[in-house]
């Protein structure tokens, strides 16, 4: 396991070298739901929106993706950088992702749900 993040429903999510997103809750503690991420490299970071509806993942090759728990599908994936994504945090309008190249990227949720663009802070 490379990273984990809390969910609003007292569960948590985790990611790792196997490129899976795992969703843990009190009902599946020993057998979490494992979702293929589509990442081609080890997944380094994960974060969730405060309501737990969207989960963002970042990999060592710089790809940033967002999973929608309600729709049960990936709604965004983009290679933000050629360096890896080192951390992700939710922010007021979506997510921010830091990279090993020293750049912080803002990915607004309205952009994720429409055009799929992001911009550098």
How would you explain this protein's 3D organization?
- It is a single chain.
- The chain is mostly beta strands.
- 4% of the residues lie in helices and 51% in strands.
- The protein has one helix at residues 109-113; strands at 3-6, 12-15, 20-24, 33-36, 43-48, 54-59, 63-68, 73-79, 85-91, 94-99, 104-108, 119-120.
- It has a four-stranded antiparallel beta sheet, with no helix packed on it. The chain has a four-stranded antiparallel beta sheet with strand order 5-6-7-8, with no helix packed on it.
- The mean pLDDT is 89.
Q: Using the CA coordinates, give the radius of gyration.
A: 13 Å
The average pLDDT is: 89
The CATH homologous superfamily is named YVTN repeat-like/Quinoprotein amine dehydrogenase
Number of domains: 1
What share of residues are in beta strands?
over 45%
Helix content: under 10%
Order of helices and strands: EEEEEEEEEEEHE
Number of helices: 1
Low-confidence stretches: none
**Shape-level CATH architecture:** 7 Propeller
Kindly report the CATH topology.
Answer: Methylamine Dehydrogenase, Chain H
Structural class: mainly beta
What is the total tally of β strands?
12
Shape: globular
What does the largest sheet look like? 4 strands, antiparallel
Kindly report how far apart the N and C termini lie: 29 Å
């Amino acid at each position: 396991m490379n990273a984990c993040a809390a969910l609003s429903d007292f569960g948590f999510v985790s990611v790792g070298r196997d490129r899976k997103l795992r969703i843990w809750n009190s009902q599946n503690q020993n057998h979490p739901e494992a979702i293929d991420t589509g990442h081609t490299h080890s997944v380094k970071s994960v974060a969730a929106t405060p309501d737990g509806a969207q989960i963002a993942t970042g990999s060592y090759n710089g790809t940033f993706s967002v999973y929608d728990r309600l729709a049960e599908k990936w709604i965004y994936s983009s290679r933000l950088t050629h360096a890896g994504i080192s951390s992700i945090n939710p922010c007021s309008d979506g997510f921010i992702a830091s990279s090993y190249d020293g750049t912080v990227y803002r990915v607004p949720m309205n952009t994720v749900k429409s055009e799929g663009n992001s911009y550098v802070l």
